[in-house]
Amino acid sequence: MTESSKKTLRSMLSKDSLRDMAGDKIYERGANYYGQNLVDLLFHEPYEAAAEVRGTHPYRVDFSVSDEGEIEADCTCPAMNSWGFCKHCVATGLLLIDTPAAKKGSEKPRKQETDLFAKAYPNLANWIHDGTIEIGRDGCSTSMIRIIDEGGVVFEGGTRHKSIDKMLEEAEEAAKEWLGEE
Would you say domain 3-98 falls under CATH 3.40.50? Predict the structure, then answer.
C-alpha cells in the first residue's frame, strides 16, 4: 500500500475504535488520563505520532499506520507487554483525535527503547520504581530474592535456584500474580 493511498492515523482513530482495542475498563482509565491533561504530544504526522503520558512514571507511546493499513501502537509501560493496548495508548489516541497532524518531515524525537531487563522482567522493572527488590541473603532468612512494598514483604524466594536468571523468573511470576490481584 502506497503512502498516498493509506488512511491517515487521525482518520482511523475514533473513541469507538479505541474502546474496541482497549476494552471498557482500560478505555475509561485512559480517558481519565486524557481528561487530566497527562498527555504531552511529542509529534503528530499523518501516519505516525508519539506522546509522553505521565502515569506512575512517564511512558512513551508510539502510534503508526502499518504498510497493511492497520493501526499499530506501542507503549513503554509494563502493562503493554503483559496485557496489550493500555490506558496510556487510549489517552494518546484521544489526544490524536483532537489534534491535527503536522506536515511530514517535522523534527521528531527518536523512539525510546525499552531496556533488556524491562523486556525480560516487565513486572519487576515496574516494581523497582514503586517498591523494593532485594537480591542476596539478608541474615534473617534463607531467601535470595525479596519483593517488598510499603506494607512489607510480598514475596521471598530464590532458595531452590542456582542462577540469578531463574531467581528473577520466579520473582517476575510472583510480581505478576500479585499485581494481577491488586
Answer: no
